Amino acid sequence: MPLPALVHLEKKFERHIRLFELKKGALEKKIEQQIKLFELKKGAFEKKIEQQIETQKKKIEQKFVTQKKKLEFQLRKLEAKKGIRFDDEVRFIRSWFEKPLAIGAVTPSGKALARIMAGYVDPSVAGPIIELGPGTGPVTEALVAQGVDPARLVLVEFNPHFCRLLRARYPTATVVQGDAYGLRRLLAGLLQQPAAAVVSGLPLFTKPLRTRLRLIHEAFSLMVPGAPFVQFTYAAVSPIPKALERVSREASDRVWSNIPPARVWVYRRD
Ligand SMILES: C[S@@+](CC[C@H](N)C(=O)[O-])C[C@H]1O[C@@H](n2cnc3c(N)ncnc32)[C@H](O)[C@@H]1O
What we know:
Layout (H helix, E strand, L loop, with lengths): L2 H80 L3 H13 L1 H4 L7 H9 L9 E4 L5 H8 L7 E5 L2 H10 L4 E4 L5 H4 L10 E4 L8 H14 L5 E6 L13 E5 L11 E7 L1
Parallel strand pairs: 1-2, 1-4, 2-3, 4-5
Antiparallel strand pairs: 5-7, 6-7
This protein binds S-adenosylmethionine (SAM).
S-adenosylmethionine binds next to helix 3, helix 5 and strand 2.
């Protein structure tokens, strides 16, 4: 190739390179702009998604709260209809799992049994009314329902959770956390006058007979003569089997509606 043609070609080639460089720079700028735009949009998009997630979360939470309220309302309605408190049932069962022998029953006493027990207490007789092992308080409730002023109640309960519950439910009652089998020592100095009745939900059969006898004698020593010691049992026989001197005893019919069916025994000492 002649030299001038070669120079011409070279120049043409250089022009093309410069043009290419220029175009490349413009293209790069455009790409950078696109990236920046994308970043901006990405931020806004992310914010939008976050907002949507937050809104959905709130909606789900609200739905959950409404559902919970609805369920609680239905539960309370069912409780009112059946005459039971599921919260108490759950507490009771939990405690039973922890200490089955001390609790002695899987569920709290039913309304019918509690009413029969309370029915042996005469609210017009003066003096405190001692309840042993009130648990979640079904018998306490029956006592109050039949006219016993809660301020007269001395509730002796071993389980601290139940004590807390009883204090909250009956703020004027005296709740004593302790072992009912040491009754006289436990209540020493607490009673201003002899008790009008002792109502017991203790699982007596988990204790030897001599402990049961000591308990009933201690209870009699704290009561006015002839006052009732009311005790329920799931067993077929009396928890105080021996005929005791000067002590009369009577039994209710078996309460078949209770789970498990139970009977109420009442002991009085002249
Ligand atoms: C069978 S549950 C009866 C609860 C309630 N009175 C009812 O009828 O549903 C027995 C209750 O006696 C309480 N208890 C058991 N041994 C006790 C003790 N030595 N002193 C005080 N309370 C006791 C248990 O914690 C439980 O609350």
